[in-house]
Hints:
By secondary structure, this protein is mainly alpha-helical. The protein contains six helices and seven strands, in the order H-E-E-E-H-H-E-E-E-E-H-H-H. It has helices at about 20-40, 75-80, 85-105, 130-145, 145-150, 155-165, and strands at about 55, 60, 75, 105, 110, 115, 120. The strands form three sheets. Strands 3-6-7 form a three-stranded antiparallel beta sheet. A two-stranded antiparallel ribbon has the order 1-2. A hairpin with a 2-residue loop joins strand 4 and strand 5 (about 110).
Amino acid sequence: MGADDAGLFQPARDEGRAELRLWEHYYNSHRGHVAFGKRHPELYPNNLWGVNASDQPTDYSAEDPVDSKVGGTITPTGVVAGYLFVPEDSEKAMLSLWKNYREKSWGKYGFGNALNVPKNWYDGDVIGIDLGMLLLCLENQRTGLIWKLTASHPMTAKAYKAAGFR
Length: 166
């Protein structure tokens, strides 16, 4: 199963319950993040997007475009993880990060947790759980191994069945 195989995300129809399309939800969520960034170039310049819970210039929190709680902070790991759903937009943002911001935000382990270009703030912290998510997404995109391993575990089948997935 690879990134283009939406079958894993297609739930079974339950009586009285509309079919949920998880793949479409994630795809649309990422498209929304990209569109929001394009509508607000003063906050997210140069094809940047990737709003996620992360370090911020003043604390650790999550920006939320839906509730207009935004300040321009993006996460490189969010951009890379989006590659599964919006590869072209992720690639543009990754190239922009590399070309325009690596001098200020690249460290020993890669990009820092977050950056906020309008505030000229570049986080030096690296958060392991974010890098883990990033590496799992990249490997899954490359080989499908993560989904294969996950799908082969008996608890996954039990959980999918309980959630109404095929």
